[in-house]
UniProtKB/TrEMBL annotation:
The keyword Metal-binding applies. The lineage of its organism: Bacteria, Pseudomonadati, Pseudomonadota, Alphaproteobacteria, Sphingomonadales. Pfam families: GFA. Residues 126-139 have a biased composition (Basic and acidic residues). This is GFA family protein. Residues 3-109 form the CENP-V/GFA domain. Residues 126-145 are annotated as: Disordered. The keyword Metal-binding applies. It comes from the Bacteria.
């Protein structure tokens, strides 16, 4: 069985069918508003490798940018997924929703340029003011989906 996770109220559960990759912090304004926290940590899996195992009918979706949307528990609001039109082959899930979030650790920061001033991570991982240089399709001015 792969890594598992779920929401605050327990109505929605998921399983990963492969190992997640590209784990990183995002400090964009959309993530701040989506989470109510200074930043979010996402990791990626191939589309189809993130599978709802309970409560798929409770999952809601919201357009969070012109090219992306986010999926969350419609009962308790826990944010699960970000999907971006430019990268249909992968989905990004919020790492803190894993049952064991320490399984994977962030390797970089993106949107450091919109980091909240009093939030001061002291890790030594790379910091990018916006997207990472090799990010496909996402070089505009908008934050990630
Ligand atoms: Zn929930
Ligand atoms: Zn973000």
């Amino acid at each position: 069985m792969g890594l598992t996770g779920g929401c605050m109220c327990g109505e929605v559960r998921y399983e990963l069918k492969s190992e997640p990759f590209d784990c990183g912090w995002c400090h964009c304004r959309t993530c701040q508003l989506n989470s109510g926290a200074p930043a979010m940590v996402f990791a990626s899996v191939p589309d189809g490798d993130f599978a709802w195992t309970k409560g798929a009918d409770k999952v809601r979706s919201v357009h969070s940018s012109s090219f992306g949307h986010r999926e969350f528990c419609g009962e308790c609001g826990t944010p699960f997924l970000m999907k971006v039109d430019h990268q249909p082959e992968t989905v990004d899930f919020s790492v803190a929703t894993l049952d064991d979030p320490e399984t994977i650790a962030p390797e970089f920061h993106i949107f450091w340029g919109s980091k909240i001033g009093w939030f001061n991570p002291s890790d030594g991982i790379p910091r990018h003011d916006r997207f990472r240089p090799d990010t496909r399709g996402l070089d505009g001015s908008e934050p990630p989906g």
